[in-house]
Amino acid sequence: MTIAIISSAVRTGRKSHWVALYFKNYIEQQGLATVDFIDLAEYQFPLFEERLRFMPSPSADVLDFAQRIVLADGVLIVTPEYNGGYPASLKNVVDLLYAEWKRKPIALATVSGGPFGGAQVMTSLVFSLWKIGAWVVPAMFQVAKVQESYDETGTPKDKEGTDKRAKAFLEELRWCIEANNRMQETAAKGS
Asked: How many domains does one find in the chain?
């Protein structure tokens, strides 16, 4: 099983990246899946111009990103909340693809510097993912006051409590991935 983790913030001093690193470390240490860590800051995509399927000559980065999403059994998106919404870097890659997101199990971890843990970003992000046919996992992982909760290596201040929450969150993602894989196998046998 492969889980792609998308670290969606690209701004200087991003702290949601710390949570993405935590999940990478936790999944690998627990042997839950193979991790494909996708840091959108490394791509530096230009502003969205067109969906991949309509691009006459997509860049190598666009093709690479699309292939990584296709090969992932599920995706864990870690996003900060910016003024009640999610960053343009994430909106860019959500809109870039279409068929690649269809029925893809996606778990959401939201992060904020304030007390609400990115709760407001859920509405707009879930709606966008739903509109393109992604399967949003019915579990959330919210991180409030991220600057007080994790360090830059992804180590949580409350490791025991964080690991307990992560375990339940990732069990839900893994369940959805396994269910999706069984449905795809059944559909393939029927055709």
From this structure: 1
